[in-house]
Design a protein that fits this description.
By secondary structure, this protein is an alpha/beta fold. Helix 4 crosses helix 5. The relative contact order is 0.12. The mean pLDDT is about 95. Bound molecules: S-adenosyl-L-homocysteine (SAH). The site of S-adenosyl-L-homocysteine has 18 residues, from strand 10 and strand 12.
């Protein structure tokens, strides 16, 4: 088995080079090549032929292949479906904003969390991604599009905090000055609410933005749409958010998918206000994206606006998420799901 070189930190690569009798300087050269998207050691022309041969025998360089590329005609959003080295597929979405180009990346193949409105979880978890496979989504989106990526959101397929150590390593890689050098303040991580992992993340005191998929203000409602709520209920989750804020001083972003007749009443807005009291928060209202396999529907535009107004009047900042890529199956997991259905005739779920 060859070692997955792109999952290694610069320090680890330096230690390997020293052990091979090479200078640490070589590690820096190799690391730079890898983080610019080199797919073979033969491209690394500033290394000797002997060293390139040795590296090729020891290490593997991951490189996903594009199997689908869909571009929105409306807003330039591009959705990639990548095939990984073992044949599994994951999605990445490139979004263009006035402040820069942002990629939404996947952290797992499939998802174990079982949220009833989400396409990513329909077939369960297949496997967790490796650090290199998360980094590749950023590198190869940048190479394919020719657009520099300045922002990353971990909101694609999978639950990032279920793949905690890999995600921490990925953050170290993209943040490294010799690599893409993307600032933590330009990175958002979204979780369905794995409380022990939120507390573990708080200890790291990173400057990233934590997004919490709340989607309901009561256990009664949240239990019906998010199985994770049976393990960590709303109160436990919001207490963890308070602890996270106390440790990091970073305002938390709450995602709230507006689902018709499920979580969109005025009582829900009022209860949400009560529960968020004293917690510096931003609520992101997302009109539900319809998923073919789910009976749930989005709330009307008027209901979303009324909900937003109630939150704002109660002193909580609330925005309605602009839907990008609405014409290209751009919500979580839909492209992979539709591709696999077409390829295999059906998907186990
Ligand atoms: N597992 C993580 C991150 C991935 S999902 C999490 O749960 O936060 C990114 C966001 O999209 C989450 O807030 C998720 O709840 C939301 N989402 C999933 N399916 C959706 C749908 N059909 N419509 C609107 N939002 C959806």
């Amino acid at each position: 088995m060859k070692t997955d070189i792109k999952s290694m930190t610069l320090e680890e690569l330096q230690a390997d080079m020293r052990a091979m009798g090479q200078s640490a300087f070589r590690a820096g050269q190799i690391y730079t090549w890898l983080h610019r998207g080199a797919t073979s050691f033969w491209e690394m022309t500033n290394l000797s032929k002997e060293l390139r041969e040795t590296l090729d025998q020891r290490y593997e360089i991951t490189a996903p292949k594009v199997v689908r590329r869909q571009e929105s005609k409306k807003d330039g959003t591009v959705k990639y479906l990548w095939r990984l080295s073992d044949g599994n597929c994951v999605e990445t979405v490139l979004m263009r904003y006035h402040y820069g180009n942002s990629v939404c990346i996947s952290s797992e193949v499939g998802c174990p969390m079982g949220c009833s409105f989400c396409a990513s979880t329909l077939g369960g978890l297949v496997r967790r991604l490796r650090p290199s496979e998360m980094l590749d989504q950023v590198l190869f989106t940048q190479l394919d599009s020719g657009l520099p990526i300045s922002h990353i959101v971990l909101m694609g397929i999978g639950e990032p905090l279920d793949n905690f150590d890999t995600v921490m390593r990925f953050l170290e890689l993209v943040n490294s000055p010799q690599g893409l050098n993307i600032s933590m303040r330009h990175i958002s991580l979204s979780t369905c609410g794995l409380v022990p992992k939120i507390l573990k993340l708080a200890e790291k005191k990173l400057q990233l933005t934590l997004s919490v998929s709340l989607h309901a203000p009561s256990d009664e409602i949240r239990n019906t749409i998010m199985p994770v709520n049976r393990a960590y209920n709303v109160e436990t989750l919001l207490n963890a958010c308070r602890a996270y804020y106390a440790a990091t001083n970073r305002r938390i972003s709450f995602e709230y998918a507006m689902i018709r007749d499920v979580n969109d009443s005025e009582d829900c807005a009022r209860l949400l206000l009560r529960r968020l009291k004293g917690l510096p928060a931003h609520v992101n209202l997302i009109p539900l994206n319809e998923v073919a396999e789910s009976p749930l529907h989005p709330s009307s535009r008027q209901t979303v606006q009324r909900f937003q107004k109630l939150l704002e009047e109660g002193g909580v900042t609330a925005t309605v998420r602009r839907t990008l890529g609405g014409d290209i199956d751009a919500s979580c997991g839909q492209l992979r799901r539709n591709f696999e259905k077409a390829e295999k005739g059906s998907v186990s779920s």
